[in-house]
Write a structure and sequence with these properties.
Belongs to the binding-protein-dependent transport system permease family. One of its GO terms (biological process) is transmembrane transport. By secondary structure, this protein is mainly α. It has a domain of 207 residues: MetI-like fold, CATH 1.10.3720.10. 72% of the residues lie in helices and 1% in strands. It contains 16 helices and two strands. The protein has a two-stranded antiparallel ribbon. It is elongated, with a radius of gyration of 25 Å.
Length: 330
């Protein structure tokens, strides 16, 4: 078999080559939407016509609730901000929170899961009980409590991003802990771990060099699914008034909350852009996560391989099985 190139071994590229039909379409759509979200977030300073907190232009104040015009393609908000600029800058805020929250969750969750699964004993029982206790609370309620505890509900950009990320991290850590712990419990009984113990390797070397490497294969699936949940949780915190102050950063949930009164007055342009941005960002990441989750199922892979086989391939594949069966009968 020819050795695959580095490009072909990349996780998303490898999964994309495995997918067929509707599954490939979902994965491609998710990748496109997520790529647009990332590009908009990264290029926000150059794409947005105005700053997220700008109220005045060369001709004076923008004005509140102004309809779409050449100067403001999506109009202005009730606070007098440019809707298009706030929507573009909101992607950058969402990306900051998602990256920080996922990084903290992965690091802390993997570390606790590794220690819990490998060492076991009373420490394992305590960590599992704490994780179950956190699971018993509604995730949004827990995020609200964490946001209030960290920043008092509202704050500037850096404190607000950190408080929202920490609030989301508290919800996500038990998921990584339980997944990694289950894999560690399975891996630590393998022969190569026993061999490492025999040759005198230290406990920490075995944990981080041998066990950890073989216990994180399913984490990319959880990361993609949690990224969409992080965007939704951030939007919910902003909608409920526990997010980032509008003068410190643009946040889709806050803008959506401020547009509630506009909708009843027939002013549509302040609600549709941030709401659409939330839906598309969550949809893109969710499609990637669900597609990767399906492609990781060996039963679905077997079905796809069977669907791609021609009748001649099926007959050729069945001949060795038939000969083996006849040999057993004889």
């Amino acid at each position: 078999m020819a050795k695959r190139s580095f490009f072909d071994r990349l996780p998303v590229v490898h999964q994309l080559r495995q997918s067929v039909g509707l599954q490939r379409g979902m994965l491609v759509a998710g990748l496109v939407l997520t790529a647009v979200f990332l590009l908009v977030a990264i290029l926000a300073p150059w794409l947005a016509p105005y700053s997220y907190n700008q109220l005045r232009g060369p001709d004076g104040l923008f004005g509140a609730q102004q309809p779409p015009s050449p100067e403001h393609l999506l109009g202005t908000t009730v606070g007098g901000y440019d809707v298009l600029s706030r929507t573009i800058w909101g992607a950058q805020t969402a990306l900051f929170v998602v990256v920080v929250a996922i990084a903290l969750s992965v690091f802390i969750g993997i570390l606790l899961g590794l220690i819990s699964g490998y060492i076991g004993g009373w420490l394992d029982r305590v960590l599992v009980v704490i994780a179950d206790a956190i699971y018993s609370f509604p995730s949004l309620l827990l995020a609200i409590v964490a946001a209030i505890a960290v920043s008092g509900g509202q704050s500037g950009l850096v404190p607000g991003v950190l408080s929202a990320a920490i609030a989301i991290t508290v919800v996500f850590i038990p998921q990584y802990l339980r997944v990694v712990r289950a894999e560690v419990v399975r891996v630590k009984s393998e022969a190569f771990v026993e061999s490492a113990k025999v040759i005198g390797a230290s406990t920490w070397r075995i944990m981080f060099r041998h066990v950890l490497r073989n216990s994180t294969r399913s984490l990319p699936l959880i990361v993609t699914l949690n990224a969409s949940e992080a965007i939704a949780t951030l939007a919910a915190l902003g909608f409920l008034g526990f997010g980032i102050e509008p003068t410190a950063a643009a946040e889709w949930g806050y803008d959506l909350k401020e547009s509630i009164g506009d909708v009843s007055a027939g002013i549509w342009w302040t609600a549709i852009p941030p709401g659409t941005a939330i839906v598309l960002a969550i949809l893109g990441v969710t499609l990637i996560g669900e597609s990767l989750n399906d492609l990781a199922d060996p039963r679905l892979r077997a079905r796809r391989r069977a669907a791609k086989q021609t009748p001649a391939d099926a007959v050729a594949a069945s001949q060795p099985v038939a000969r083996e069966f006849m040999g057993e009968v004889e």
